[in-house]
Batch of 3 targets.
Target 1
Amino acid sequence: MKESIIDRTWSMLRKRKPDWSLDQPFYVEQDVFDLEMKLFFSKHWLFAAMTCEISEPGDWVRVDIGRESVVIVRKKDGEVAAYHNTCRHRGSRICQEERGHAGRLVCPYHQWTYGLDGQLIAARLMGDDFSKDEFGLIPVAVGVAGGYIFVNFSSSPADFEPLKRDVEPYLLPHGLDDAKVAYTQNLVEDANWKLVIENNRECYHCVGAHPELMHIITEFDDPNDPRIKPEYKELVKRKGADWDRLGIPHAHTHGSEVYRAVRLPFASGRVSMTADGRPACTKLLGNLTDPDLGSVRLLSLPNSWNHIQADHAVTFRVLPISPEKTLVTTKWLVHKDAQEGVDYDLERLTEIWASTNAQDRKLAENNQLGIRGSAYRPGPYSGLIEGGTRDFVRWYANEMQAALAPLLQINAEHGAAA
Ligand code: FES
Ligand SMILES: [Fe+2]
């Protein structure tokens, strides 16, 4: 009997050497990709958009994740809601643009019309016995924390509260609800989504690949890391004491393998991720008056990392498209009242991460090309500097195994009955 994709994936994970990279099929095969979309991406909280992108009732954004498409709307009561972007008539996609503003969502096929609360409010020529109540849009769970909108496809999603509780205090001082997106960069990378995250979770490559970024940040993002230079340790201590006095959270959050936040100062004399280290935007975020708040490094697995500073924030969202294609969206946010050409210059605002993203894209795509070849074998992560990557892959492998286990059982019972 042909081994099913469930058995095969399970067995690859079971035989995996701990803390080594994954077998080739995890990076290239459609069947494995489909399985992980179904078992893994469908159950985790995914960073989708920012609240400031849908600040007014009727504003909406569309987010596509694998085969799924979601519309996130600001309802009339000001709450954020999300729905599957699939019409309840015959399944057409409803919203086709990336974003819009409307009092109602109208399907382009036969004009079934939905309210911002997802209810079907009009459907022409469906007869007298047709009940609109039964054909509302299918909701997607939403979590909002400090200006970030997360979605979860599960019908019984994991509790969002721990993430909100732990992470929101780091974000609130930056007033991201009252920000605006100054620039969006969409990169479709020819690499598996896990390679994009694996690359992000280590700075083993930083010294060789990111000359611009390394002027600004340290390659170690744990302030307790023994390899941090004594001068930087001293700076962390000094800035930490300042932030304590201001009531600004900075210590490393612990207790979750899925998300974490920490506020770290930049290299001495620098306050922002710009080429010269000076703020990119003269109007600071929220009601901040001190430009030197370092950056909040917010990680939310499986699809986001962020740098939130006093003058601007940079958000990163990773969305799988297919086994070897991934959309990486970077957004640069400034205060909503900041004016381009007056308070900030787009080139200065974006240059560090535009070049870093281009460098990372090359690394991930080159990694993908090498993995495609017959010589690829999983290799070991460095215990000294690839801990973040190791933890991510370990988490992914454990989650996949846990999700596959009940299916193996069903398969075995099916086989025995046949
Ligand atoms: S498929 Fe949407 S109205 Fe027919
Ligand atoms: Fe990088």
Target 2
Amino acid sequence: MITIVVGTNRKNSRTREVAQYYQNLLRQEKVESQILDLSELPDDFTTSALYENTGKNPVFNALRTTVERADQYVFIVPEYNGSFPGVLKAFLDGLSYPSKLMHKQAALVGLSDGIQGGALALSHLNDIFSYLGLNVLAQRVKIPLMKKNFQDGKVTDDFINQLLREQAGLLARSRLFV
Ligand SMILES: Cc1cc2nc3c(=O)[nH]c(=O)nc-3n(C[C@H](O)[C@H](O)[C@H](O)COP(=O)(O)O)c2cc1C
């Protein structure tokens, strides 16, 4: 199962809308997926589910199990202050060690209101995934200027759409090998 991770816990985020759009692209590739939205994380998870509290928060445990059982991921990542959201790093810090993400596969999509499209955010995240042994597809897609390029739940720019379709296709065709 491909798990699409909404990389922020902001309620009603644009990132969530992009995740739904991506899920449709995967459907067109005849691949089922599930969305894991970090807004489902318990508000107190950094004090109730990490470190000495590992395993003690059932809601967090369920989200962790969902992520760790998947074999392919799409991380939809908004740019927050020139990087990826801190809540995503806190979530990754709460996953099992040694990492159950090792030798699995991920596609990355960055979003921003500015012109970077989360380029730096994706690079920062890529460093962490490289450390964890999670294989990231070389084709990382960036959606800059979100207010112009993403309207009414759809990517409006043809070239970005083409890149997204190519990436979703690569992920779908890799399914046999992960
Ligand atoms: C806390 C915070 C920090 C942000 N920092 C940046 C930034 O550094 N550069 C940028 O272009 N957009 C920034 N944005 C805008 C988001 O990247 C943008 O709205 C994105 O399309 C979707 O964010 P959302 O999922 O929170 O709706 C920021 C938004 C928030 C909430």
Target 3
Amino acid sequence: MTQACTELPILYTFRRCPYAIRARMAIAAHGVAVTQVEVALKSKPAELLALSPKGTVPVLRLPNGAVLAQSLEIMAWAAGDADLFDADALELLGENDGSFKQALDLYKYAQRHPEFPAWVYRQRGVVFLVRLERILAVQLFLAGDEGGALDWAIMPFVRQFAGVDADWFGAAPFPALREWLARWQASPLFLAVMARVA
Ligand SMILES: N[C@@H](CCC(=O)N[C@@H](CS)C(=O)NCC(=O)O)C(=O)O
């Protein structure tokens, strides 16, 4: 007897990419089955570029041929909720994916941008960290008392920022943010999505 072969959605991902991490966290949290394809960003597979010529990851290809090429769309798809993020969340995400991500890239690769010392770029990102600290000083998670999509969407970026200079982050005036990050970094969900795909 031949067994029916059910085609799974295919997620093109890159292990350390913060956009891909947020997508994988949402997919794992909702228990959605996908086939993962780990992409080398320096030699992207032709099939990925055919699906999404902009060539970023994550990209999700659904069995019906639909292609989701934005991490936040993939998160909403995993949750089965097109309105996963409300207006306040979208505003916070806009700052995360916009000015904070820009500052993160400059800070992380400051030697490639010698116009300013690294601390100047770091200071640009600190504006966002101050905002997160204010939220987390009064509630455990970014969306309230329960963790969820908003945390998953922002945590991978804060993790990268913290990792540029762990000593600085460890001493910076962000105790609630540090605790939040440590909690997510130790969470079974995060550890599961960071496991290396064979
Ligand atoms: N807006 C996109 C951004 C995704 C993105 O920029 N991903 C990076 C990796 S972290 C990428 O693929 N960059 C292309 C490259 O490095 O060639 C999303 O939310 O999915």
